[in-house]
Amino acid sequence: MPAQFSNVTISPPSAIFVEANKSENLDNFKLASVSMEQQHLSKNQKRRQNKKQREINIANKSSISTESNVALEIKLLAEQSITATLNFDRLKAGPRKSVIIKDGQRMASNDEFFLICPKNKLCLYDAQGKEQLNIKRDFNVSDICWSTYLKKFLILSDSDLYSLDLTRSTPLMIEISGFGRDMDECTCYDNIFMVISDFGGEVIEVWDMNMSWKSIRRYESPISREEDQGISSIRFSSSGMYLGVTLTEPFIEKAYFQLCNWQDMKVLQIVEQPFYEGYCNHYMLALPNDEFLVYKYSEKQIFFFNSNGQLKQRFQYSKRICSTALLMNDKNCLVIQTSRPDELHFYDL
Description:
- The structure is a single chain.
- This protein is α+β, with helices and mostly antiparallel strands.
- The strands form five sheets. It has a seven-stranded antiparallel β-sheet, with no helix packed on it. A four-stranded antiparallel β-sheet has the order 2-3-4-5, with no helix packed on it. Strands 6-7-8-9 form a four-stranded antiparallel β-sheet, with no helix packed on it.
- The chain has two helices and 23 strands.
């Protein structure tokens, strides 16, 4: 009797069986097929085929290398173009426009407007020096920053944080009511907001804007700063990798610029600065390529620091400086707010 087969699955020959989800078997099958074909080729045919394959491999490697080099060159050119457009030597020629502004102190910008805070007001100016918004305020302004994450200006008062939303019919609103202490300086990058306490910045608080303004971290002395030091200002670098910090040590009459890791406040670089009496000394403006512009309130000197936290240039301005802001557009408009005379000076860098 013939053999009886039940519940038996007959598979194709293993030499040509390929599972669709196993690329390794597929590669082995391809190699086996090529090997079988080569058995029927003459020596000259095999040499020509091997030579052709080598040429293809070399061409592929060259293509990958060329693409990598092109990508690197594009990146370098982009970085160079950003740096090249900021020509601070143009400050020597005088501003292209000046606007009188009374009792203005802090200032910030987005990619369209400058937010100025003269007494009891909040004003928006465009890059041409024309006022676009003027609203009243009944709170003190300690600092301002622009949040690209929220698309709002964040305005720090003594113990509250306000926002200015240009898309709302009522643009001004409170984001945080009552920090529990007077706060002095702030900065933000992506969803992270950092703020320091008044009277020397003994406390640095880190807030997450993605979690309905949740406080996620807190640094105190000696991590925030060393004893007898006072923090003047903090600013995230343009990429968010670093935190620029200016501080003073009045008892030994020293002032410093520091480059820190914002996630643990570890100091990466420190440079001594000219000392001026009191805690409130140097303030900062973040520049492209993780660089910083540092200046002393109501003084004339400007210092430029590179992404390594090293001093690369200093400049003597013609007037006393109160605040600075940079609007990155096709002309890269820098505004310097001065004291005596109280003016906004507009420059195209």
